[in-house]
Amino acid sequence: MSSSATPSSSSPAAESAYAAAGVDVAAGERAVDLMRAHLARTRRPEVLAEESGFAGLFRLDTSGYSDPVLATSTDGVGTKVMLAQQLDRHDTIGQDLVGMVVDDLVVCGAEPLYLTDYIACGSLVPERIADIVGGIATGCEQAGCTLLAGETAEHPGALEPHEYDLAGSGTGIVEGDAILGPRRVHAGDALVALGSSGPHANGYSLVRRIIADAGLDLYSHVPELGGPLGEVLLEPTRIYAAHCLELIRTTEVRALSHITGGGLAANLERALPDTVDAIVDRGTWAPDSVFEVLAEAGSVTRADMEATFNMGVGMVAVVAEDSVNTALALLQDRGIPAWQLGTTTAGEGRARLVGTHGTRS
């Protein structure tokens, strides 16, 4: 389970010396206690509880597979953590971490099984760590995976007391002959967009630069956003894994593309063979207001915005043309904004954005 990197037991003299060096053993133990309830709510039946004090154990059930393949992914949340620290709001950033990891797993059709986390901090504040892990647990619940193990490390001198960073790794499983990807994509397939909840956890170096250069106030109400800018920018990443798995079960999904750093076109091209192009019609959606606010405040060109942000599209499913209506109905029933984004055509493995964006109603 997530625990402090410091020893859990040592002599008073050793603890005093370690504390003098900036590491608080007692705070680490309290943080572990505060995390336990968060960890428990993510536990899947395959988890072997209390079998090891150092590693998380997961009994892998392959009875339903003829050719089980494990998938793995690792990621962080980038400089969005700096915004969380600036606003002293730490209960959502963990969900961003889960989204970045599990939605990279599901693109190949893999069901996320478990996630491990790593949190490094300048000073271990148990309540802050518990908030972060609580967000991770919420994300794991949404994805249907368990938070199996992790580590919390105190790095005085390397990080300022208020600073922290987090990363995670996930493991999933998929049937060998059901792996999704470019080899399944054909000309004439349809592109279905799954709407994002904002920038997710990508592009925040540019976000922070815009805020600094334009002198934006994170706490001020922005009419176009319906709330304070900082609150909108901390909106956690929408997690698609469970929705995509249901989509795979009920429709003909060829490939999925997780729209993260690099924007829509670059990520969509990773799901295309070199004989097929994707034609994305900007007119099918209006990007969220936050992207317009950022572009205007930073005088950022459309090309730069589209090369940095998801622009309102968090995931794209490439589906058989006759599956579009079923896919859209399923996603909308599950509360995910979805629309047909475009089509595929014979080409060279490129994604092309055409037209102009629609207007928000």
TrEMBL record:
Q: In which pathway does it act?
A: Purine metabolism; IMP biosynthesis via de novo pathway; 5-amino-1-(5-phospho-D-ribosyl)imidazole from N(2)-formyl-N(1)-(5-phospho-D-ribosyl)glycinamide: step 2/2
- Signal peptide per UniProt: none
Matching Gene3D superfamilies, A to Z?
Answer: PurM-like C-terminal domain, PurM-like, N-terminal domain
Predominant localisation class:
cytoplasm
Tree of life domain: Bacteria
CDD domains per record: PurM
Q: Name one Pfam family in it.
A: AIRS_C
The catalytic activity of this protein is classed by the Enzyme Commission as: 6.3.3.1
Is 4Fe-4S included in the keywords of this UniProt record? no
What is the enzyme's main class? Answer: ligase
The entry lists its GO molecular-function terms as: phosphoribosylformylglycinamidine cyclo-ligase activity
What PANTHER family does the record point to?
TRIFUNCTIONAL PURINE BIOSYNTHETIC PROTEIN ADENOSINE-3 (PTHR10520:SF12), TRIFUNCTIONAL PURINE BIOSYNTHETIC PROTEIN ADENOSINE-3-RELATED (PTHR10520)
Q: Which protein is depicted?
A: Phosphoribosylformylglycinamidine cyclo-ligase
Organism, per UniProt? Answer: Lipingzhangella rawalii
Upper lineage: Bacteria, Bacillati, Actinomycetota, Actinomycetes, Streptosporangiales
